[in-house]
Amino acid sequence: MEPSNYGTYLVTQESLSPGRSTLEVVEAAIDGGVDVVQLREKGADTRWRYELGLEVREVTAEAGVDLIVNDRVDVAEAIDADGVHVGQSDLPVSVARELLGPEAVVGCSASTVAEAEAAEADGADYLGVGSVYGTTSKEVPEPEDDVGPERVAAIADAVSIPIVGIGGVTAENAGPVVEAGAAGVAVISEITAADDPAAATDALASTVERTKRQAAERD
Amino acid sequence: MEPSNYGTYLVTQESLSPGRSTLEVVEAAIDGGVDVVQLREKGADTRWRYELGLEVREVTAEAGVDLIVNDRVDVAEAIDADGVHVGQSDLPVSVARELLGPEAVVGCSASTVAEAEAAEADGADYLGVGSVYGTTSKEVPEPEDDVGPERVAAIADAVSIPIVGIGGVTAENAGPVVEAGAAGVAVISEITAADDPAAATDALASTVERTKRQAAERD
């Protein structure tokens, strides 16, 4: 799948999932129409991530949903993921690309225009831009770092690769992120901590698709 | 270098080094005659480990000293290390081998005969066995888990790949580990936290070599 089709993007974190396994959350998100899953699971040991990754790879492959691994290029290779997502403190995009080859998807986190332009120049296929609205997924929220839909728009103007907005995004506030030029939105808690993760995914996907349709009709 | 020649094995951890960089410690250990360096740096971010790894690779390659990366197969590939060392919670030995190829060194931690036999069957080139004497390098020492030279001997009897003893090893107590059948000893603090890391490496190497010579003369 092309990252320009990453409309609804689930980032996994079992520690933020009340009483459900990541595999259950992923299966529900697939039922709800998710486009791509990122195996994150910060703080978990490598063996567990690898074994979980094999299971998640099976259900995502069957559903035609992309699977991206956070940070670990080796885990991505080992579970035959579609690609990797690196942050500013992870391996450089160019190194991930060299290890994974030209066909793999390499995404990169960026919160400024400068980071976004550098990641694009380094060979990134898409950008995760945030935190758009702050986040409930980190222990210490840093609201002063929120980039807002305005920064998403500035980055979308500056680069030609697709952007996914992340950080505090819900079905209610996803519209302005897409209007700002994002191809989609990435969430942890909105799906993972929802009473009904499939319904939450469907609601998010509906907002993204409706906003894109409205924007297309306007143009 | 064959892992059977890993007599003196430095495991790096800058956070345990008082006022010295890992690069300085590695350079001193090379002066003192170290055989192999493992880039560990638990808790550090990937980018930092990668950049440090490139520097350590340069000085170790120049000195003909092997470089092994803890846990991260991707970092090992990215910095052109000689191999990787995996623990029981890291990627399986067989997966590391598949990613790195037949020429790479793949080491594995083992504290029981069962773990040692499984790692050998899985394709490990050497074993890190410990904690031999407890350790000062973990926040919460677990002395009840010390394996002692006796367990080193039991594992050396059970497998045919080389063993490196780790955990609380010093120049004073390394002899019994080598007498038990270890090819060498691995240390963090003994070198990293020493007043003179080069002298500490030399003292450790002297104990290992003297013990091996005495054992050979006895046989």
SSE inventory with pairings:
2 copies of one chain form a homodimer.
Chain A: E1 8-11, H1 22-31, E2 36-39, H2 46-63, E3 66-70, H3 73-78, E4 83-86, H4 93-100, E5 105-110, H5 113-121, E6 126-130, H6 148-158, E7 163-166, H7 174-179, E8 184-187, H8 189-192, H9 197-218
Parallel strand pairs in A: 1-2, 1-8, 2-3, 3-4, 4-5, 5-6, 6-7, 7-8
Helix pairs in contact in A: 1-2, 1-9
Characterise the protein shown here:
Two copies of one chain form a homodimer. Chain A has 219 residues and is an alpha/beta fold. Chain A has a single domain (8-218), classed as Aldolase class I (TIM Barrel). Chain A is built from nine helices and eight strands. The first copy, chain A, has helices spanning 22-31, 46-63, 73-78, 93-100, 113-121, 148-158, 174-179, 189-192, 197-218; strands at residues 8-11, 36-39, 66-70, 83-86, 105-110, 126-130, 163-166, 184-187. In chain A, helix 5 (113-121) links the parallel strand 5 (105-110) and strand 6 (126-130). Chain A is globular. The two termini of chain A are 25 Å apart. The mean pLDDT of chain A is 95. The interface between A and B is medium-sized, with 21 and 21 residues.
Task: Please tag this protein with its features.
homodimer, 219 residues, alpha/beta, TIM Barrel, eight-stranded parallel beta barrel, 16% strand
Shape of chain A: globular
* Share of residues in helices of chain A: 40-55%
Largest sheet of chain A, in brief, is: 8 strands, parallel, barrel
Work out the radius of gyration of chain A. 16 Å
* Tally of alpha and pi helices of chain A: 9
Q: pLDDT under 50 segments of chain A (min length 5)?
A: none
Number of strands of chain A: 8
The portion of residues forming beta strands of chain A comes to 15-25%
| Name of the CATH class of chain A | Alpha Beta
Q: How is the quaternary structure best described?
A: homodimer
Strand order of the largest sheet of chain A: 1-2-3-4-5-6-7-8
CATH architecture field of chain A:
Alpha-Beta Barrel
CATH superfamily of chain A: Aldolase class I
Determine the structural class of chain A based on helices, strands and strand pairing.
alpha/beta
Provide the domain count of chain A.
1
Query: What is the distance, rounded to the nearest whole angstrom, between the alpha carbons of the first and last residues of chain A?
Result: 25 Å
CATH fold group of chain A: TIM Barrel
What is the average of the pLDDT values of chain A?
95
List the secondary-structure elements of chain A in sequence, H or E: EHEHEHEHEHEHEHEHH
Largest interface: A-B, 21 and 21 residues
